[in-house]
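Journal club prep, notes for RB
We'll compare a predicted complex against what the paper describes. Inputs for the pantoyl adenylate case:
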Amino acid sequence: MRIRSDDFRRDGRAIVLVPTMGYLHDGHVSLLTAGRARGDILVLSIFVNPTQFGPNEDYARYPRDLAGDLAKAHAAGVDFAFVPTAAAMYPRAPLTRIVVDTLTDGLCSPRRPGHFVGVASVVAKLFHVVQPHVAIFGEKDYQQLMVIRRMAADLDVGVEIVGMPIVRERDGLAMSSRNAYLSSDERVRALSLSRALAAAEARFRDGERAATALIAAAKAEIADGVTVDYVELVDTDTLQPVDTIVRPALLALAAFVGKTRLIDNRVLSG
Ligand code: PAJ
């Protein structure tokens, strides 16, 4: 991959990278479509990164479908799929880790210890191997996008980080590879996550600005049998908690639907 990227760079071609863990859905495809329009060489990486999963998380059973992914990649105009093995990425346990402070004080980070260290570190490795000019990420994982943006800026990585909006199913459920885990009954309950965000947004549109009221409005929509991990209102730039909305804020939540942990978010502004 590095040799190919060196050649493309020498030829003055703009390389765009879309990093994923595979099991592609239309959310991933939207990133590829945006990437296709932004550069000459579109690279998709597929790597289920073990270092970003906790010991009790779903690394071993994370859904995989390489043949299906490559068909979708081809249809989206991908030039290269970079699909390294774990042994190629980690020939030995790394001693170097990238920690991004304060942006990881809340939201998913305390609930998934080590997760964002794993994410920031593997994305830095992917950047060094693929050497893209541009890399594209989804706002579905808003905290991840912010962590990667800041890592790239702090380390002078020289990769432009582009964020893209959340792609949803017709009924509002945010697309996720993990939706594949849901039974039909759980799929119905999972809809309450996007409903919760919509309910809070409606209160916000009615003039409510207090975090406690907006968070309560969201929690009230969460279906029976769904366990809230967190509902937080944070500043869109610092990700620090907000008491009263005076500038754009992110309402973000995570919840367990059965054993499946899902996340969703919405920006409240204007
Ligand atoms: P993965 O969960 O496969 O997601 C890959 C990219 O797709 C991320 O940037 C994510 O935000 C984006 N994405 C997922 N669902 C989306 C949706 N419904 N709408 C828009 N974008 C969506 O995120 C990861 O992989 C990994 O942590 C990775 C960055 C590859 C590092 O291992």
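Talking point for the session: Residues 2-164 form a domain with the Rossmann fold fold (CATH 3.40.50.620).
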